[in-house]
Amino acid sequence: MSLAVSTQPRARTAGWQIGLVVTLVLVLVAFASVVWTPYPVQSVDAAAIMQPPTNSHLLGTDGLGHDVLSLLLRGMLTSFVVAAVAVAVGAVIGVPLGLAAAGWGAVADAFVRAIGGYIAIVPAFALAALLALRFGPSPGTAMVALGFGMVPAFIAATRATLRAAPRHGYAVAAQLAGALPLEIVRRYSLPAFTRAIGAEMVAQLAVGVLGEAALAFVGLGATAPATSLGLMLREAQQGAAGQPMLVVAPGLLLLVIVLALSVTSRGLRAQGAVPASGATDAA
Q1: Is 87 a member of any domain?
Q2: CATH number for the domain including 120?
Q3: pTM (2 decimals)?
Q4: How far is the CA of 20 from the CAs of 46, 71, 260, in angstroms?
Q5: pLDDT digit string (tens) for 57-81?
Q6: Domain hosting residue 25, numbered range
Q7: Residue 271 lies in a domain
Q8: What share of the chain has pLDDT > 70, as a percent?
Q9: What angle is formed at CA 36 by the lines to CA 33 and CA 39, rounded to 5 degrees?
Q10: Cα Rg of the chain (Å, integer)
């Protein structure tokens, strides 16, 4: 029994490290598609339309003769870029609001939480639809809509972390030892806050990748001639029966990306004993 208990932390650590490695590999492969793909993304092979996987096209081709593996690599890049920009938008707005809620008293806390509540009422899909009507569907509209929808999560993560910091054992021990408040913030609170926001950014990156795919699938995100994982799934609806890899490849890649990011985020939270934002808003 003691052996099983002692190996659990190691298993959790190994799990999130594997998730981190998988995430980094996928990101590197995605950005490598800027300079290399097996075939030019927009090249058409009229003699190999809807071809199943072969030695020349490892994942086959689509209805226009595009190489599916090349589309997959470039689509993964689009998904990562849209999700990363959305996370940046959410963090730039949400973290300062969370700081204000945690540090400016009860009135500011109530006001910021109300803002977060109102933002949460507006689904990213609704905002994306409004932006698409005004500016047309594009990755840019997906970035803004998804980023705006992430603001409440960053408010909650920032607020919960800062409000919990003074109650942590290390902060109390440092105070009893006579450490100055600024020293406590520099040595303990700031690293904990950095880990918390880092974990939240990774978690929201997974949300962004899924959100981008969903928006592209319904026509509110990337459109041809661009490509993304969601757009590949959208365009595969007509030919999935004849070429299953059109659906299997982007769908499986989405699953791997989201699982890797989720495992990494959970591991980062566990390393820093960071509460999940969705569960701590009522703290």
Answers
A1: yes
A2: 1.10.3720.10
A3: 0.84
A4: 40, 24, 7
A5: 899 988 888 899 999 999 999 999 9
A6: 12-280
A7: yes
A8: 81
A9: 105
A10: 22
CA–CA dist 183, 166 (Å, integer): 13
Q: Number of structural domains, the chain?
A: 1
Reference 33, options 68, 59, 66, 70; nearest CA is 70
Residue 275, pLDDT score: 46
Q: Return the biggest CA–CA distance within the chain.
A: 77
| Residue 131, domain member (yes or no) | yes
Q: What's the chain look like in SS3?
A: CHHHHHHHHHHHHHHHHHHHHHHHHHHHHHHHCCCCCCCCCCCCCHHHCCCCCCCCCCCCECCCCCEHHHHHHHHHHHHHHHHHHHHHHHHHHHHHHHHHHHHCHHHHHHHHHHHHHHHHHCCHHHHHHHHHHHHCCCHHHHHHHHHHHHHHHHHHHHHHHHHHHHHCHHHHHHHHCCCCHHHHHHHHHHHHHHHHHHHHHHHHHHHHHHHHHHHHHCCCCCCCCCCCHHHHHHHCCCCCCCCCHHHHHHHHHHHHHHHHHHHHHHHHHHHHCCCCHHHHCCC
How far separated are the first and last CA of the chain, in Å rounded? 35
Q: Does residue 2 fall inside a structural domain?
A: no
Residue with tokens 């880990």: 195
Nearest to 222 by CA among 233, 266, 92: 233
Distance CA 263, CA 206 (A): 10
pLDDT per residue as tens digits for the range 188-238: 667 778 888 999 999 999 999 999 999 999 999 988 888 999 999 998 887
Look up residue 30 and give its amino acid: A
From CA 24, how far away is CA 6, in angstroms rounded? 29
